[in-house]
Write a structure and sequence with these properties.
Elements: H1 2-11, H2 15-21, H3 25-80, H4 84-159, H5 162-229
Helix pairs in contact: 1-3, 1-4, 2-3, 3-4
Length: about 230
């Protein structure tokens, strides 16, 4: 019966408490399930052995009852044959076998009662192990959810630290500053290009005006010389 007490102690353990203490609840529960099924196999072997003993005692009881009945029949034959002395010997043998049969019957009844209790305990044990098997996946899922929730809370706790957000704010401000400087440099480059282009056109215009004046001056000079020669 020791194996049943051991299994009962295991099955009565607080699973949630074990989960909270285990590094890997899934691994622990799987290992527990394996051990329970191994112990169930051993329990079945023990019960099977007890049943075999019961059957052996029952068989011996029946054999002795049969022997007692046979000797009683022989005593009856001796009486019919008028051989009372032989009948008495047969009756003595019958009584011996009957006494042995009674002893085996008493032993068988005790063994039968013990076996029935073992069978009942074995059925309860198997039902509990099957129940544990059904609950195992649920418990593992609960454990995983709990771990995920803890991780989420830990991450959220880290995010509550304003230093992380301050770093992002500083980086954003720096990027915005760089973008503004780049825009300003581009605008300045465009302005410089426009100024150079305007200067070129102004120079060109100024150059054309000077040539026209010189041309007019030359024509006036030439007209003056023609008049002089005339």
């Amino acid at each position: 019966m020791g194996i049943f007490k051991r299994m009962s102690d295991v099955l009565k353990a607080n699973i949630n408490d074990l989960i909270s203490k285990a590094e890997n609840p899934e691994k622990m529960l799987n290992q527990m399930t394996i051990e329970m099924n191994e112990q169930l196999i051993e329990a079945k072997k023990s019960v099977a052995s007890a049943i075999a003993d019961e059957k052996r005692v029952e068989r011996q009881m029946k054999e002795h009852l049969t022997q007692a009945q046979d000797w009683e029949k022989k005593a009856m034959l001796a009486v019919k044959a008028g051989k009372d002395d032989l009948a008495r010997e047969a009756l003595l043998r019958k009584q011996e076998y009957a006494n042995l049969a009674a002893q085996y019957k008493e032993q068988w009844e005790g063994q039968h009662g013990a076996v029935e209790k073992l069978k009942s305990s074995l059925r309860q044990l198997q039902q509990k192990i099957e129940e544990v098997g059904r609950k195992k996946n649920l418990l593992i899922a609960r454990s995983k959810r709990a771990e995920a929730q803890k991780q989420i809370q830990k991450t959220m706790g880290n995010l509550s630290d304003t230093s992380a957000f301050e770093v992002f704010d500083r980086m954003e401000a720096k990027i915005e500053k760089n973008e503004a400087e780049a825009d300003a440099m581009a605008e300045l480059a465009d302005f410089t290009a426009d100024s150079d282009l305007e200067a070129q056109f102004k120079a060109l215009e100024a150059g054309d005006t000077s040539t026209d004046a010189m041309l007019e001056e030359l024509k006036a000079k030439m007209q003056l010389e023609d008049k002089t020669e005339a």
